[in-house]
Design goal:
The complex is a heterodimer of chains A (488) and B (183). By secondary structure, chain A is an alpha+beta fold. Chain A is built from 15 helices and 20 strands. Chain B is an alpha/beta fold. Chain B has a 9-stranded mixed beta sheet, sandwiched between helices. Classes of the chains: A alpha+beta (488), B alpha/beta (183). Chains A and B meet through helix 15, strand 13, strand 15, strand 17 and strand 20 of A and helix 2, strand 3, helix 3, strand 4 and helix 4 of B. Strand 13 (367-372) of chain A pairs antiparallel with strand 4 (65-70) of chain B.
């Protein structure tokens, strides 16, 4: 069976995207910054009739047309917009691929009759795109190359088997050949595809290499060319639109109750768990209110996520009402399906939920746990890791008794390498009753540490007559005494 | 009737307690260690006097301690209340730098009661609230055999008398014992 391909070209995609958002009349252009100047990338109809064209520098354009309004080019947004369009185009056929940055390819083989034939399908397509205020041109042919040529040079339908006739009068540039090859062909007097096909293939191959021949064959269908729709990354988002705006937080929670199971089912299908969720509430006045939920563990259990949203939902300013809710899992992590065991280890779910709730108040990174580290330096003998992204691991070994509190070293007035008999610390007069030590700790020379500039330290555990047990050190290379921590 | 140490420690569940003095972190650490369960420990993030997990090893497993660094004193109280109310962890410890008001203390009591969890507020001297179930003053005491003796004085008790004990933590048996006072 012969294939039928639609090539859809959006000649003003960049400006259409922006003008859809912020409708305006008058000349408008999208500019791209290249080689130190802003050049016009895409102009709307009014700007074109004012004499502006693609590739012109912005300052020239302003001179020609002072009322020109412009916006910088945003490639990512355009790409996103085009992928949205390709998703939409799947209403016509299952095979839709993006073609360059401004076109779509649709393989409508066998699906045109569902819309009442190609004419009717294209009418529908044109009507809908026009309604969406998008400039589009399309070509329908048996091959991808021919459809592209028609879309760009003479929009219309080439009936089945009529490809060659439809292409005959088109310029050679319609073959998707490199500009240089186009120029050379023009110089040789080969203006149209019809003239090109009449040339003997051998000379063509000798003169231009395989590329022009390949493009010609692709357009005429003797050389196959496939359409490969890229696999869509799954979108973890659901939404709910209300007939009447809502304003109560209990209503938002009720809506969440509907949104969450749908999203969680999707996550389960892909064996994913959400790490960050975003609830976007669209208000009737067009402003968005967002609630972000950062979870301590990847999760896809609707019943557990629901109560975690309570605090965030309470902070929403509903204004005159919310008419659409959108729930997106903005950050997902792999979460394999787990078997339910009879003797499951003690569940940590409650703890993780508590970490999530607290994290939404004080920041998820601020809930930390200690992990052992391999170092003799007291401050580096443990690591502090965010509890949400770490598991308790490793064993705790203490080389010698360590104080329960440590603080930046506080100098005291004392001399000599023997612990002072009496000293003042934090406005207290203390008398040493027993001194245990010294324990010598040398700095880790392979790591730069400002605090250890004073060289090695001799640590002493000083028990005072007054009761307090301090951890003090003496620096023999830079004589001085410091209190570094306190035992209980 | 004389108050026995074993009647009052481990601390009464479902209530908020206060502890002051240099040995307050050990007091909290021992409480957590005896429960062998995870515990939250809330501090304000500017505090430079930090808990050293290496020093906690004799008393409890440092893996059990989850530190919550709160930006403001109010957040410490709010987070403590939330953790107490959830009842997921048996002990919630908070280090407080501002005097605890009666209202705040009362809210913590209610939250602890709801979650059947025990709150231990480490407070600077004289900054407690009247709502506390008990208030302790824990400080190290010098003793001639080197045995890390501590003096734990019960300075406020809502449901009984006050007393003072010399206690010692036995690392091997994981047990706290009262040392009889010398006559």
């Amino acid at each position: 069976m012969k294939k039928r391909i639609i090539s859809l070209w959006f000649p003003r995609l960049h400006s259409d995207r922006i003008l859809r958002r912020q409708p305006m009349t008058g000349p408008f252009a999208v500019t791209a910054h290249a080689q130190n100047t802003d050049r016009l990338l895409c102009v709307n109809q009014e700007a074109q009739s004012a004499g502006l064209e693609r590739g012109m520098s912005l300052s020239d354009a302003h001179a020609l047309c002072p009322s020109l309004r412009s916006e910088p080019h945003h490639p990512q947004a355009d790409q996103y917009f085009l992928s949205g369009l390709s998703r939409w185009a799947r209403r016509y056929c299952p095979w839709v691929a993006q073609d360059g940055g401004d076109g779509l390819l649709m393989d409508i083989t066998g699906s045109a009759h569902l819309f009442g034939g190609e004419e009717a399908m294209l009418n529908d397509l044109g009507h809908r795109l026009g309604h969406a205020r998008l400039n589009a041109r399309w070509g329908v042919a048996d091959t991808r190359g021919a459809a592209w040529a028609l879309a760009h040079y003479r929009p219309g339908i080439a009936a089945m088997g009529e490809t060659e006739r439809a292409l005959n009068s088109l310029p050679v540039a319609a073959l998707r050949i490199a500009p240089q090859e186009d120029v050379t062909l023009q110089r040789l007097g080969v203006k149209t595809i019809g003239q090109l096909t009449k040339l003997p293939r051998a000379t063509l191959g000798q003169r231009f290499g395989a590329s022009v021949l390949m493009r010609l064959d692709q357009a005429l269908g003797t050389h196959g060319e496939t359409i490969s729709p890229e696999a869509e990354a799954p979108v973890y988002a659901t939404r709910l639109t209300f007939p009447e705006p809502i304003g109560l937080s209990s209503d938002v929670m009720a809506a969440l109750e509907r949104l969450l199971p749908a999203l969680c089912a999707k996550l389960r299908d892909h064996q994913m768990g959400a790490r960050t969720m975003l609830l976007i509430c669209r208000r009737v006045d067009g402003q968005d209110q967002q609630v972000e939920l950062r979870l301590a563990r990847p999760l896809r259990d609707a019943a557990r996520i629901q109560p975690l949203f309570e605090r965030g939902v309470g902070t929403i300013d509903a204004g005159f009402g919310i008419d659409q809710l959108r729930l997106v899992a903005t950050q997902v992590e792999h979460l394999a399906v787990e078997q339910i065991a009879h003797h499951a280890p003690q569940s940590q779910d409650g703890l993780h939920d508590l970490i999530t709730r607290l994290g939404n108040r004080i920041g998820l990174d601020n809930i930390q746990r200690f992990l052992p580290a391999d170092s003799h330096i007291p401050e580096r003998s443990f690591k502090i890791a965010a509890a949400a992204w770490s598991e308790p691991s490793g064993t705790w070994v203490s080389p010698a008794p360590r104080p329960i509190r440590i603080f930046p070293p506080e100098g005291i007035a004392a001399t000599g390498n023997a612990p002072p008999k009496r000293f003042r610390w934090r406005r207290q007069s203390l008398a040493t009753a027993r001194a245990t030590g010294p324990e010598r700790i040398a700095p880790e020379w392979w790591l730069m540490d400002e605090n250890w500039r004073s060289g090695m330290r001799d640590y002493w555990r000083i028990e005072t007559q007054q009761g307090r047990r301090l951890w003090m050190f003496y620096t023999p290379q830079n004589p001085g005494w410091f209190v570094h921590g306190e035992f209980a | 009737m004389l108050l026995r140490f074993s009647d009052i420690f481990p601390l009464k569940r479902g209530r908020a307690h206060e502890v002051t003095g240099p040995s307050a972190p050990v007091f909290a650490g021992i409480s957590v260690g005896l429960s062998r369960m995870p515990a939250f420990w809330f501090v304000e993030d500017w505090m430079h006097e930090t808990l050293n997990p290496m020093g906690l090893i004799p008393y409890c497993d440092p893996h059990h301690i989850l530190i919550g660094k709160c930006p403001t004193p109010t957040d410490v109280l709010a987070a403590t209340e939330e953790a107490l109310r959830s009842g997921v962890v048996p002990y919630v410890i908070a280090e407080i730098s501002k005097p605890l008001t009666l209202k705040a203390g009362r809210r913590l009591q209610l939250a602890a009661g709801q979650g059947r969890a025990t709150g231990i507020m480490i407070i600077p001297q004289g900054m407690g609230s009247n709502a506390a179930q008990t208030r302790w003053d824990a400080r190290p005491k010098f003793s001639t055999p080197n045995d890390a003796l501590m003096q734990w004085s019960l300075v406020k008790n809502k449901s009984g008398t006050v007393a003072s004990w010399d206690v010692r933590w036995n690392e091997e048996t994981h047990h706290i014992s009262v040392v009889p006072k010398a006559a």
